[in-house]
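Practice problem 4.
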């Protein structure tokens, strides 16, 4: 039991979520885009939208480019929001030739495994 009288039954760390693939660590790319804290993307957003659909290479789509766009839109939304731990924003992803999909995303800053600030970018349903 802890000091509040509660017994911890189970804990799932950020590190475990990255190892399991539930979160995708994009901290290196985020640092190159100007982020100062570690950044992960939720697996549904990452595999559903950031990774380009097969055959989209001819449309100028790449994982690096789509991730760059997501990170830039995240920075822009955070810069234009009030001081909060989360920001909602939309990103357009090319899902097939000539078809753009507007995807609602959320970026949340919270404590990491060692209580350090970290950011997670995901679909709102994944919170």
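Answer key:
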């Amino acid at each position: 039991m802890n000091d509040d009288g509660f017994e911890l039954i189970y804990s799932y760390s950020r590190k475990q979520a990255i190892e399991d693939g539930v979160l995708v660590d994009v901290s290196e790319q985020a640092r190159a885009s100007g982020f100062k804290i570690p950044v992960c993307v939720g697996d549904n957003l990452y595999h559903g939208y950031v990774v380009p659909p097969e055959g989209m290479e001819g449309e100028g789509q790449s994982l690096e480019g789509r991730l760059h766009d997501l990170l830039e839109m995240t920075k822009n939304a955070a810069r234009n929001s009030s001081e909060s731990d989360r920001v909602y924003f939309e990103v357009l992803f090319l899902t097939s030739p000539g078809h753009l999909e507007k995807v609602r995303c959320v970026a949340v800053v919270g404590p990491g495994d060692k209580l350090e600030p970290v950011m997670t970018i995901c679909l709102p349903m994944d919170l």
